[in-house]
Amino acid sequence: MTALWIRDEAVKATGGKTQGPDWQAFGVSIDSRTVAKGDLFVALAGPNHDGHDHVANALAAGAAAALVHKIPAGVGADAPLVLVEDTLKGLRRLGAASRARTDATIVGVTGSVGKTGTKEMLKLALGETSTHASVGSFNNHWGVPLSLARMPAESTCAVLELGMNHAGEIAPLTALVRPDIAIVTTVEAVHLEFFASTREIAEAKAEIFSGVVKGGVAILPRDNPYYGLLRERAEQAGIERFVSFGIHIDADARLLDFAVAQDQTLVFAMIRDKPISYAIGVPGRPWAMNSLAVLLAADAAGVPIAEAAAALARMHPPKGRGERKTLRWGEGAITIIDESYNASPVSVRAALATLGSLEPGKNGRRVAVLGDMLELGEQGAALHSGLAEQVNQFDIDLVFTAGPLMGNLHDALQSEKKGAHASDSSQLAPMVAARLTAGDVVMVKGSAGSRMSRVVSHLDDLKGENA
Q1: Contact 446/337 with Cβ under 8 angstroms?
Q2: Is the dihedral of CA 168, 121, 177, 214 positive or negative?
Q3: Which of 183, 182, 181, 127 is nearest to 154 (CA)?
Q4: What is the pLDDT of residue 263?
Q5: 128 burial via Cβ count (<10 Å: 0-12, 13-18, 19+)
Q6: What is the mean pLDDT of residues 357-374?
Q7: pLDDT at residue 7 greater than cutoff 70
Q8: CA distance 336 to 263
Q9: Which of 94, 220, 356, 401 has its CA 20 to 30 A from that of 407?
Q10: pLDDT in tens, 425-437
Q11: pLDDT at position 465
């Protein structure tokens, strides 16, 4: 196995000083609880946590060395350390050095929703064994440089998420990543607490274009109201190659039709003037739409479109983003759709549409369990109550809600669709369990801060019992 970093390379990249013996690292970690043998442990420091307090534990667990900006307690004078001015800056420099040494085609992905799913599809489409991708949603000021620092030099492709909830956050990330291909999945009304309008969100997403390398490609959502703005900003950044996806007649990758089954989505599309049909191993229209961006990126990276499309049949939903499980329940079973990782108005509507497309078991119902959608500012109450329209449109039988904002939806629901409402997910979980019956299909969704995963865990703990 080839080392990811050797001591002298890491010292040169970070501009640090070294002590202790020579070493080589096969991974990079910022969490002493999950550090693996042979990792370089980066001791990040924040207002409520200081990784320097855990350096000794990381080294004891087998870390090859630690990147620090002060001598940690509990380590000897001969401990393998790289001393830098600031560990976050050191991590960024390590990421920049990793980007500089690779010939990989780099894809940067941003958008209001769909980033992680698109990233995971790209990893399959571009070649799973040789494509590096960020883990989970490592898309912020420390997640992006960490993902770059973990990239093997021999990678042929890499896919990095770039996220934000304030203006000005994507620009430094894209400057670090320097993508060859930039994807904007969509622009929607999320993070409204920090933006005066959706147009401002579009401007913030467009920051990704500032880092695209010369000759790079922008992949844009053709149906989005801000397509024109995105293209204009990309042109201003010097990008000359554009492709688009959507249902629009002028889209380069055009969705013609799709069908949602219990565990997959069947897609019929046109890529430029050629028809193509394929399956994605996850159900839902958003997966069909974002797969078109994936195929355009694969094409730009030199991967045959048919080959990339065939790989999408192996797609599985990331944890908390549509992951499914069947639980024994009473005399039968229930199906849980875990969408608990995050939520916005557009993603909740999409999740309700997917739930509405599924057939429950015998005597079963379509059940939605929803927690607050956060960072919506003054529009929060109206955006929550407005979901009642989609509940009716997609024939959802029963809705449980948690949190003060979701109380607005509970009040707007027809009486026969009201399951129960609670102040938080912990209180709601047993209420949901008490009402479920065999055959139910249950979708659980909410913003990360709503902690709706507690509902999923509670149901999982009860499986096999007569709740």
Answers
A1: no
A2: negative
A3: 127
A4: 84
A5: exposed
A6: 94
A7: yes
A8: 12
A9: 356
A10: 999 999 999 999 9
A11: 57
Q: Which amino acid belongs to residue 141?
A: H
Length of the chain: 467
Give the three-class secondary structure for 323: strand
Q: Give pLDDT, residue 464.
A: 54
> Where does the pLDDT of residue 317 fall: very low under 50, low under 70, confident under 90, or very high at 90 and above?
confident
**Rounded distance between C-alpha atoms, residue 333 and residue 253, angstroms:** 40
pLDDT confidence of 77, banded at 50, 70, 90? confident
Q: Which positions ≥6 away from 38 have C-beta within 8 Å?
A: 24, 25, 26, 27, 62, 63, 64
d(CA 143, CA 30): 10
Q: For residue 240, name the pLDDT band (cuts at 50, 70, 90).
A: very high
Strand pairing of 17-19 and 131-133?
unpaired
Task: From 209, 163, 171, 162, select the one nearest 190 (Cα to Cα).
Answer: 163
Q: Which domains does the chain have, with CATH numbers?
A: 5-90 (3.40.1390.10), 102-314 (3.40.1190.10), 323-462 (3.90.190.20)
Q: How far is CA 171 from the centre of its chain?
A: 19
Could you give the C-alpha distances from 60 to 35, 46, 57, 78, 280, in angstroms and in order? 10, 23, 5, 14, 43
Helices (H) and strands (E) in the chain, counts: 16, 22
In DSSP notation, 164-181 reads -SSTTSHHHHHHHH--SE
Q: Is the pLDDT score of 191 beyond 80?
A: no
Output the six-digit token pair for 137: 């949603």
